[in-house]
Structures are given as structure tokens and as C-alpha cells.
Fold these 4 entries.
Entry 1:
Amino acid sequence: MRKRYLLPLLIVLSVVSVFIGVEEIKPGDIFHLTREQVEILLISRLPRLISIITAGIGMSICGLIMQQLTRNKFVSPTTAGTMDCARLGILVSIIVFSSASMIVKMGVAFCFALAGTLVFMKILSRIKWNDTIFIPLVGIMFGNIIGSVSTFFAYKYDLIQSLSSWLQGDFSGILKGRYEMMYMTVPAVLIAYLFANQFTVAGMGEDFAKNLGLKYKQAVNIGLILVALITSAVVLTIGSIPFLGLIIPNIVSIYRGDHIKKSITVTALLGADFLLFCDILGRVVIYPYEVPISLTVGIIGSAIFVYLLLRGRSYA
């Protein structure tokens, strides 16, 4: 698995994505586009493409960081309750700050996502039985508890429909003016790249990291802040995308090992390629209608997840 294959694949999938849609735009039309076609590209197709790529890169790197810091290959924003806490934060922002801007909702979702992830890490430190499968199951139960709280308040304030819109990831509503929040994931990804070596050392354990002179708590907190920031931006803009942060880092680690500095670029490219492929598949399988990205990623991702579980059990 090499960058020289993943990058050309990303370019090809990006070109294919731009020319798929109900309004037909052929590659040959690119040099003599009508005004309507230009507006479609600038308002819908390109914002959607940017959102897919940034979401794929961001969520994959989130999973990579969480798996390294927790030393468990089945931990991700999906299985650690981070996404569920971000949704609860969005719900709280709707109830308390009903007319707030997107940046305020993003801030509230970020605070809840960070707090939820810290609680999960605290639970993790108290677990004596560090079985590979047991820890993500605890995270899933924790996420379901948070989800139940969200559903209760959504019913109470008649916001269940608003909550449901964030339960299902979907790129069909991505338009110019509604996706710019995704740009916040770019500096977070760059910071993750700069701290990659520290995350690798932190993943070796607190005592070992401190012996090497690493400020362990600081490195962990930076990683969790980046995960919360990226997750809240994706959930607020697109919705939940299951399994992405779980399966992509696992696939990369099989071929590239656990050194984050060496695998972070491949993880980012593979995540973007995978999400683009799932989006294209969802747009053509029942054309001209569209299957939500959460469904296509969920189906393919769950199959890969089962394989990884069986693979982990066989090695255990």
C-alpha cells in the first residue's frame, strides 16, 4: 500500500465524483460550460468533493490517533462515544442557543465531544481487563447511554427530527455556504502530523513515554482535542459516518505498522479514497436517487470490521 497508488486513485475518483449527478455534465463540456453548469460545479459539486475529502482524511486520522493513545485497534470516534457526545452537544446548542451561529454550535459540540472522550479515557484507565474486544464494547455502551440521553431530550423538546438529521451522514445537502466548517479540520490534520512522533511514543505507555522525556499528559490532551475538533466539525456539517475511523487505520497498520509518522499520510489518502468510493457508489446504485453515505459506509465498513474482529481473534 503506497502513496504513489493512492494519490492517483484519489485524483481519478475526484474527477468521477465531479461529473456524477442528476444534471449531466460531461468531461468534454469542461471547456465550454454554460452558466448553469458553472453554478452547479461551484455551488454543489466542488463543495461536496471538498467535504468528502476533508471528512475522509479527518475521521481516518482521528481513528489513528485514538487507537494509538488507547493502545487498542478497535477504538475510534464511533466506538468511544465521541460522535454521540458531539450530537448531544449539538442538541444542547439547539435547545439553549436556538438562534446561535454555526460556530457557536460547533464550539458547544466540541466541548461535549472532548468531555465525552476524556470520560471514556478515564473509564479506560479503571478497566482491569484490557481485552482487545472488551474495551470498544465499553465505548459502544457508553455511546448508547449518551445517545439515550439525547433521544430523551429530543422527544421532550420536540426535536427528534432535528436530531435524526445528525444521526445519518449525508452529502446531498452540502452546498456552498454550508460546508465551510470543514476547513477547520485542515489545521487540525496539520497539527496531528507535527505531533505524530509524540503520539507514537505516548502509545507505548505512560511510564515508557515519561522515561523518554515526553510530556505524556500534554501529548494525550492534544490528541484528544484534535479528535474532538475534527469529529464535531464532521458531525455538525455532514452527520455521523460509522466505521471510517475504525477500519482505515487498521488496514494501514497491517501493511505499514504502528509508527504514526510513517502511516499518517497513507491513512489520510486511503480514508479519502474509501469515502469517495462509497459516495460514488451511493450516487449510482439507484440513480438518479442517492443512498446516504452513512448507509454505504456502514454496510462496507461493517463487513471489514467483522473481518478485523475475526482476524484479531485468530491472532489472539
Note: The chain has a mean pLDDT of 84.
Entry 2:
Amino acid sequence: MPASRLPVDGAARRVGVTADEVRRHNLATVLHRLHRAGPLSRSRLASLTGLSRSTIADLVAELSSLGLVEEGPGLAPSGPGRPSPMVYARPEGAVVLAIELAVDSLSVATVGLGGHVFDRRRVARPREQASPAEAVRDVGDLGHPLLDALPPDHRLVGIGVGVVGIARRSDGLVHLAPNLGWRDVPIGKMVTAEFGAEQPVMVANEADLGALAELRRGARPGVHHLIYIAGEVGIGAGVIVDGEPLLGAAGYAGEAGHTLVNPTGWPCRCGATGCWETEAGEAALLRHAGLGDTATGLAALDALSERAAAGDSAVLDAMAEVGRWLGLGIGNLVNLFNPEVVVLGGLYHRFYLYLASAVLQGARSQALAAPWSRVVIMPSVLGADATLLGAAELALTPTIADPTGAGRAPAFRT
């Protein structure tokens, strides 16, 4: 039975769940609330979880003994009585190293419970395809100093990696990353070797992690059905259904950029023709703006941004054309998944001001009236950090799901 479905009271005995399992579930529930919502009073925790105040007190005491939470003075009450103590997640109690392997950049960050970012580094890199070994070595050059800077009482519990490709979560194999030129690369094992990590290294697709970050750290708390559209060179879609990621049998779901939208369209790097990303990706935008097929990378996008801000009609027309194709694809996803919100990240976050009208028109023309009436399309509030923060959330998830295991994790030093 999944932890999220475990009963929290005496009913446990009637379904064969042990007291230890219930307690671990309750510990996870409390830590999850604090990680997502920030500081909460004991009384508020009791209200949110349905647990008694005495049970909450015991759970907070155990989480505190594990170094994962701490208590502080509560706010002054509006009526008689003493304030309920506030409970805080301790960022230093569980720290992860987050890594993003993008086409134009490499990023690393040290992130603790509650989403606290201790430090981060991002460097641009040439579009020329670097080998996996070179990329991991560069990540090490960025990541080792961040880990060395952590004080001794900061406990590293995992490493999360986001990559622009089809990644298998079970072992960190990147099956295909066409925009990096990688195929069947064991990134999980390579990162483990680079950092000498005893903690788990978890690898996932960048759009899936963007969706996870928007779910936990985005602008619309309480959302349970969400789609995150990642736009860089290609297009990826991370889908959240009923609060859980839609991953597929082997973790390869969400490759929406390689769905067919134009049978007579352009050839795609994946080997097919007419993929969504060939009509709405970076290359299509640059092509429609008159920059040809050779202009790529951040410099080209910076030039487009300047021209768009100056009102260049060719660039604005290009934005409208790409926005229309982007919207048509989003309309299909709205019909398929009936999300509450569609979040646009990466390239589409950057140019949302110029894309928005065409995106909305295209999506509205394709979506059925019923699911369209409930959906909001918006730019990412996390911007360029969405995948990186999602990688951190991925790596923190085992600790949150089993806080008692976190107490046994050894300190990690480079």
C-alpha cells in the first residue's frame, strides 16, 4: 500500500498495517507538510493531518531528534492562552546536490529541506555537443566547491540530476538526448563516480522535474493536475495527475515534443518528421525570424529578445507563428489530461509576453470546451531554475517519504 494511502488511526490494524508503518507514514506526512508549506504551529499541523495534538507532539519530537525539524516561539495569540509553538523544517538536516544538464548551460545547487537554496552556480556552455564524460567533469568542477562549503552539521542525503533527454529513473540511464547527441549514457553511475557518493543519485527528464518543482514550489499551491512545458532546443512535457507524476512503464512518458503535428513539416533530430518541436521549438522561432538554420544558442535568443523589445515586425510575426503551433499542441494536451494549469518554462517563459496571445488562441481553437473552461495557461514563476529545483525535490523525496532512514544517512564530504 503506498505511504500516501496508509490509514493514520486504529483502522490500520484492520487492514494489516503495522504500527511502525503507520508511524513512519505519520512522520512523513508531518515532514511533507512542513517542507511544502513552511513553518506551521502544532495546532495547525493537527488540523491539516487529522492527528491528535499529543500525536503531533510525539512526531515533532522524533523528527527533531533526527535533526529534520526544530521548534520556535509561536505567534502571539489573538485570544487567551499561550501561543502554539511553531515547527520549522531544518534545511541543514537534509541537503541535496541538484544538477541540471541543459543544452546551453550546466547548473548545480545545494538545497535543503523547505526548498532552501544554500548556493547555486550556472555556467553557459557552447552549443557544440560535449561528451558525457566532459559534461560530468564540468559538473564536478561546479559541484565539489559547493559541497566543500557546507558546514559539518549539514547532512547530504542525495543527488538529483535533470537532463534534456529520455531518462530511466530506475538506474539513471539516459536512453536518448538528441539535442545533446547522447544515446544510452549511464549518467547516474557517472555522477556517482564523480562525487564518490554513498547517497542515491536520481536522474530524470528536465520537463518532469520542472513539473515537480512547479507543483511544490510554484505559484498555485493546492493544484493537483498540472502540465509543465519545457522549451529549450526541443519541447518536453511534464505531467502531474492527481498530485503524482505521470511517468509511464519505464519513466519515458511526456515526450510531447516528438508527437506528430505536421506530416509535411521539418525533419527532427530524433529521426522523425513533423514533430511538435520542429514547428514550435527554438529552431522554428529563429527560422521564422529570418535567422536561417544555422543561428542557435543564447546569443541568437538574446538578439531576438532585443529585436522583439524594439518592435521588430519580423520577430513579432515569428513569435505569433510559433505561439500558434505551441498553442495547438497545448490544446491537444488539455484534451488528453484535463489539467488545472499549464505552465510554460524555458524559452516560452522568456518570451511569454510575445507568445501569450497566439498561444491562447491556438490552444482555445484545439481544446474542447469542457476542459478548456477549467485550465489556466501561465509562465513559470521559477523561470530558469525550475528543472534545477525539481532535481532537488526529486533527491529530497526519499528523506521526506522515510524520515527515519534519513537519520542513518552518513555525512558526505568531498
Note: Residues 286 and 292 are 7 Å apart (CA to CA).
Entry 3:
Amino acid sequence: MAKTYQEINRKIEAGEAVVLTAEEVSLMAEEYSAAEIAEKVDVVTTATFGPMCSSGAFINFGHPNPPMRMERLTLNGVEAYGGIAAADAYIGATQESEKDPTYGGAHVIEDLIAGKDVELRASAKGTDCYPRKTLKATINKDTVNEMVLHNPRNAYQNYPAATNSTPDKKYTYMGILKPKYGNVTYSTSGELSPLLNDPELRTIGIGTRIFLGGAQGYVTWNGTQFRTRTVKNEHGVPILQSATLTVTGDMKKMDPDFIKAAYYKKYGVSMFVGIGVPIPILDEDIAKRVSIRNKEIDTYVRDYGLPGSPVLATVNYEQLQSGKIILNGETVSTQPMSSLKKARQIAKILKEQILSGDFKLSEAVQSFPSDQELKSLQAED
């Protein structure tokens, strides 16, 4: 019999809900059918902790005296975008410092979450209502009005593994790729990954409450580069990059343990983001989806050393997480770019929050597009 969000939330309030992590329910599926799981389990928690370059934060500094319409500004030497209001700015995670390319927007965001002081410098032409032309100030999370994490593209539904066929080492956002197929890197938490447990996006949409960076946040739109027209395997799981999420949350409530800046040699700055998504077990179909195992989730291995990153092979996450795969008849080591240990921690924390009644499920107010392709930019030069 189908359940509703309201029924599950009442069970959470009463302390009667049965909550498992995605890994726990996958083990349960070895003994129980999807129908039995749907009857016994109310919520499954999913999680990921990996580099998500398309991230950033809105900050409102408050007005100085005399007031200023900030036009060009930096935070700890990292350029932020001030073209949205007099005292508002958006800082992107991958923006690099003017003086130190190993420090960027992600580091500023992590510093602010940790309660550290950050230097603000701003300039403007000056106007009758905003006469100030220059500003230097120290800010932190207690002095600003708001600091809101707003990430346009997080939690990819799947992502290809990377290798390099060329004789030269390659420095990429997928890490350092050794010459001549020397290694394979990947960046998805497999059977714990949120959108792989709900591939049809039946329970995830605009308004879904999530764990975001150690606090409660929300899915606020489909992510950029979102697509649903994609290749799927026999288990109905997308093999290519498919759905993504736009996520938003209060940075003042976040924990630097779950938002971590990173620098990739000869590539640049990125940011590790911790996301956990609870999936309500509304019916047998969803119970079947969340019971998926790593061996049933496929992805491509692409050659990042060649133009267009051609596909070399198809592998599953059981193989990738084993530490080695067979590629072109040879054994090649694999390394994760995301942290499975951290993802497990997030899934467990979210499970405990739901069991304690501190985290309620929210039904999406709008579903994502169901038939969307991914467009590419056609360069003119």
C-alpha cells in the first residue's frame, strides 16, 4: 500500500519511523523483496561529498556610513561580483585570488563558515545617494546580515571516470591523470549517491529539504546542465551526466567539516560540498530504486587526454571502488575524487536527525523537467 509524506512525517513525529541509509537498504534487499521493503521502511538517506565547482555564496555586508554602491570588490583578495545591489555580492567557489592562485572563493566560503575574519575591499564611482568611493573592512559571519550558500550545479546524477592515454601527465578537475592509462579517477558515491537512488526524480524537486554543508537546506531549482534525455543501463540508471541540483542554505548554520576548499594543481580551486537527501519510501517502485547496488550502477571511462574525451569502456561502481579495473586488457588502479567515508557520515547523521524528529521530509512543490536535452555552445573562433 502506498504511503504519503504526511503519514511518514507523522511517524517521524511519533518516533516510529524506520530509517535506513542507502547502503543499509541495499543489504536488506538481499533478503527482502521491494514490496516487503516498502512496507517495512519509511525513509532512506543518501549522501555525497565531493568536488562541486559550480558553487558559491551570496553575502550582504550591510551599509557603511556614508553608504556605498559597491561595484568592484574582493574578499581576502578574491574577486566577488558586486553587480547585484549596493551591499550585496556573490562569490564563486572557483574564483582565484589575485595574488595566490591556490586560494580562492571556496577558501573564503570555508573561512566564513568557520567564523574567521575576512578582509573586504571595495571601490565605486560614487553617486548622490551612495557617495563613498572606497572601502576597507573586516567581516565575519557575525557582522554580515546574510551569507547564503547558493550552488547552481551540485550532486550530479552520474559522472564518467577519467583516464589518460597520452605520454604526458594531465592536470584536470578529475585530479592528476598519469600517462599511458596509469590510473583512473572517479567522483560519485555509487549506491549512496542521492540522484542514483531516485533516477526518475519522483521524490526530489523544487522545495525538497536536504542536508547541506552541515545544516538544513533546500533544492531550489534543477541544476544547470540538467538533462533527462540520456543513455541508461538495464537497471534504468543514467550512465552519462544527467540530472543536477541547485541547492541553497544558510551558511551561518553550516559546519566547515562539510564544506571544504580544495586546490587542484595546474587546474585551480574547487569546493567539496556535503549533501544528504532523504528519500521517502512511498511505494514498491521507490523501494526497488533505493535498493540498487554498486554493481548495478554503470559509468563510462573517458580518455581525458584526447579531444572530446572519447569513451574507452563501461564499468560499474563495485569495480571502481575495489581499487582497480581492467582497461585494454591491463589492470589499472582507481582513485576516488569524492569521499565515501564522508558520504557515509552524512547519511548516518541525516538518519539520526530524522529518527530524533529534528528533520522532517518536505514534498516538492514542483517537479523537474522530464524531457530536457543538454545544449553545447558553438564557438565562432
Note: Helices lie at 5-13, 22-28, 34-40, 105-113, 284-290, 317-321, 340-355.
Entry 4:
Amino acid sequence: MNQQDDFRRSVQRDTEREQNGERERAGLVGLFMYGGVVGLLLAIPMVAGAYLGRWLDSLSPEFGTRWTVSLIILGVVAGIFNVVWYIRERL
């Protein structure tokens, strides 16, 4: 019984997505907007990591660029997670 309910919900969700997709035909502008959102989801965590890392490195001269590089890498990972999550929700 539980599997049937899950299957019905899944089919209903897919049907609603298909109907919404038919209503929202993406033109060239929609495609650029989608790409822009994906770009921002990737870029914002990287830039935030760079600024935060630079600030932390400026607190002590012995750090060098350790925090900056580490937080940029963390920002890349967070940005990729954001993009994957966004694309999964949209599809």
C-alpha cells in the first residue's frame, strides 16, 4: 500500500512538472536567465570564500594565503553543490 502511494505521488508530481513545462516554454531569454542563475549559484560562494579568507589572512601575517585558498576551494565545493541541487529541483 505504501509503495502504491509513493508511486501515485511520483506520477502526479511528474505530470504537474510536464504541464508546467508546457506552459513555460523557455526561449532564448529564459535560457540566458537559467544560465545566469547557475553561474551566480557557483560564483557567489567562491567570492564570499575569497573575501572571508583574505580577511582572516590579514589578521595574522604568519597565515600567508592559507585561509584564502582553503575558503575558495570550500566555496567551489559549495557552489557545485548549489548548482547540482538547483538543477535536480528544476528537472
Note: The radius of gyration is 20 Å.
